[in-house]
Amino acid sequence: MNGLxxxxxxxxxxxxxxxxxxxxxxxxxxxxxxxxxxxxDRLNEDASVRVIVFTGAGERAFCTGGDLKERNQMTNEQWLxxxxxxxxxxxKIRQSDKPVITAVNGFALGGGCELALSGxxxxxxxxxxxxLPEVTRGIIPxxxxxxxxxxxxxxxxxxxxxxxxxxxxxxxxxxYGMVNKLLEPGELLKETLQAAQTIAQNSPLAVRMAKKAxxxxxxxxxxxxxxxxxxxxxxxxxHPDREEGIRAYNEKRPPVFLDIV
Length: 261
Hints:
48% of the residues lie in helices and 16% in strands. By secondary structure, it is of the alpha/beta class. It has two domains: 4-200, Alpha-Beta Complex (2-enoyl-CoA Hydratase, Chain A, domain 1), CATH 3.90.226; 204-250, Orthogonal Bundle (Lyase 2-enoyl-coa Hydratase, Chain  A, domain 2). It has a six-stranded mixed beta sheet with strand order 1-2-3-5-7-10, with helices on both faces. The chain has a four-stranded mixed beta sheet with strand order 4-6-8-9. Strand 2, helix 1 (30-45) and strand 3 (51-56) form a beta-alpha-beta unit. Helix 1 packs parallel to helix 3 and helix 9 (204-217) packs antiparallel against helix 10 (222-237). The longest helix has 19 residues, at 76-94. It is globular. The two termini are 32 Å apart.
């Protein structure tokens, strides 16, 4: 078993990827890294998949990053080769055209915290803890954490977490807006899938264009961002989903939107 479970729900429109190595707190070894890379390649190209959800097996941990037992005794070359694989995986998550939701159950530490923040938004259980403890192991976050944490948290707090390696509670993460919704452990996946279902019912092209406009425009000067958003808007005007959406509204029925092919 490669440590990754994949399930399709909502008639296949939502893909749930579960890191399934609970005995090692769902840490990522090389085998799981390859499995994640292959799954993301396939899901990102599958027009029937409209939303991707990440979670971890059990309630103890979402993911605690790289498997340090596997990494023990690695040479520099072996470490860097594995890390290039991990970089590729996380880049595919960050750059996915499809919405990516992370359902964080328990510890999200190191690469696990980076994974949580690589998606579009986070739901978390009340028992979750977020942290980037890499400095306590002689390294720094290597798959985006130094850049993402400051986009979710105030500058001083982000630096404190990076430099001390101390964790942040789910309650604090929620208060600062890093977590969208705080839930009981037994309700986490259910609520996450409800959000995924809501997104999956919308026009896939409109969702993709909304995400693109936000993701690429948010760091641009305002007028440049608006111009980019208008380009995305114009893509939706000439697509059949626009006609279907307006027709469905006037006919008082749910719209039937097309998969992106």
